[in-house]
Amino acid sequence: MNEDKALYPPVDPVVTGIKGLCPRCGQGKLFDGLLKVRPACSSCELDYGFADSGDGPVVFVILIVGFVVVGAALWMEINVNPPLWLHFLLWIPLAVILSLALTRMLKGVLINLQYRNNARPGEIDRG
Ligand SMILES: [Zn+2]
Questions:
Q1: Which domain holds residue 60?
Q2: Which pLDDT does position 95 carry in this prediction?
């Protein structure tokens, strides 16, 4: 992690993460493309080497998108009873779009929270 002594005003990790911005300065971009994390902040040059959200965002995406899409499909099946092809046409693209958008937002939030709380893999201090 970059150890310079510059001071940055605190940023809200949830808002900054949803926007996909740097956890330290809240200005530079966090992502290079849709989901790939940049090597460093373009604004304050914070090294994003620490950023590892792992499976965290995906777990939330599976739970939230699964609830929304399956709930909507069940509601529609019971109340409208459309043909099967219409279910596929509606719910598969919706699930893909919601999953990609939500994964980006939640990955940003979790990386911002990781930086703010100084979270990292456990280490054994034998010194
Ligand atoms: Zn930055």
A1: 13-116
A2: 94
